[in-house]
Every structure is written in structure tokens, then in C-alpha cells.
């Protein structure tokens, strides 16, 4: 197989798998009133809060960096999450231009349901793969991501 044909095929498959996985998750999240981007932000805030080695408080800039979103996108997502009661913002006492992002009780109550949606999507997506194959896939995808991040 030629290198060009292989790259096109892999790129197409990566893109199609990502789109289909997103569509599957989106179908479940719509019933809860969230988009996939909003879910990603809520999940990231929750995971960051559980991290024992926090470098700093969670700000919009840090969320954008962690998720690979641009600042205007994260600003819009956070505005919609705040309007719908999923997050609150607190002004950074050291820098009034900056805000800390905090999950509300509503978000805390819905986290188990959100995790169920995510697990269902991943189980359906990875059905038919062995644990070793899933581990290999994860390793390969991380290599691809690191390669792209370098550029």
C-alpha cells in the first residue's frame, strides 16, 4: 500500500471514528441539555478538582489549554454553562481580570449520569476489542496527539 493512500485512509478513519463517537455521545447528552463541548468542560473541571497536584485554580484560560479549545470558544461554552446553572465564576482576588470556574450543586448531582453516558458511548465504541487492543489503541492515539501538539 502506498504511503499516500495509507495516510489518507488512516486520516479518514480517525475522523470518521471521532465524528461517530461524538454523535453517539451527543444523542445521550441532548436529553440532559448539554452539548459535547459543555460536557467536556464539566468533566474537565471535575477531574481537575479531584487532582491532588493542582498547579493553580481553574481559570477559563487553563480549561482552554487543557481541552485544546481556543479562548473565544471556551468563553461561549462557559457563558452557556453559567446561564443554565452548571457552573459559577468567582473573581480571582489576586487578579480581578481573571475568574475561577466552579461546578454548581446541579453539576455535582448530574456527574454520575454524565459518566454513565460517557461509559456507554465508550463501551459501544470499543465493543469487540480486547483489553490489549484497547491499550494499544490508546497508546497509538496518544502518540498521534503528541506528534500533532509538537507542530
TrEMBL record:
SMART domains given in the database record: HTH_MARR
Keywords: DNA-binding, Transcription, Transcription regulation
InterPro entries on file: HTH_MarR-typ, Tscrpt_reg_MarR-type_CS, WH-like_DNA-bd_sf, WH_DNA-bd_sf
GO MF terms, alphabetically ordered: DNA binding; DNA-binding transcription factor activity
Signal peptide interval: none
Lineage: superkingdom: Bacteria
SUPFAM superfamilies associated with the record: Winged helix' DNA-binding domain
Span of domain HTH marR-type: 7-146
PANTHER family: TRANSCRIPTIONAL REGULATOR, MARR (PTHR42756), TRANSCRIPTIONAL REPRESSOR OF EMRAB OPERON (PTHR42756:SF1)
Name of this protein: DNA-binding MarR family transcriptional regulator
Organism of provenance: Natranaerovirga pectinivora
Phylogenetic classification of the source organism: Bacteria, Bacillati, Bacillota, Clostridia, Lachnospirales
Amino acid at each position: 500500500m502506498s504511503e499516500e493512500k495509507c495516510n489518507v485512509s488512516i486520516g479518514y478513519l480517525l475522523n470518521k471514528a471521532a465524528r461517530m463517537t461524538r454523535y453517539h455521545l451527543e444523542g445521550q447528552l441532548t436529553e440532559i441539555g448539554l452539548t459535547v463541548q459543555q460536557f467536556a468542560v464539566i468533566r474537565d473541571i471535575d477531574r481537575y478538582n479531584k487532582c491532588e497536584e493542582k498547579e493553580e485554580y481553574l481559570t477559563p484560560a487553563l480549561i482552554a489549554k487543557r481541552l485544546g479549545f481556543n479562548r473565544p470558544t471556551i468563553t461561549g461554552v462557559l457563558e452557556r454553562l453559567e446561564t443554565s446553572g452548571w457552573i459559577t465564576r468567582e473573581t480571582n482576588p489576586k487578579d480581578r481580570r481573571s475568574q475561577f470556574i466552579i461546578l454548581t450543586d446541579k453539576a455535582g448531582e448530574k456527574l454520575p449520569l454524565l459518566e454513565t453516558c460517557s461509559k456507554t458511548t465508550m463501551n459501544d465504541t470499543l465493543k469487540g476489542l480486547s483489553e490489549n487492543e484497547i491499550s494499544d489503541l490508546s497508546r497509538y492515539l496518544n502518540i498521534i496527539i503528541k506528534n500533532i501538539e509538537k507542530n
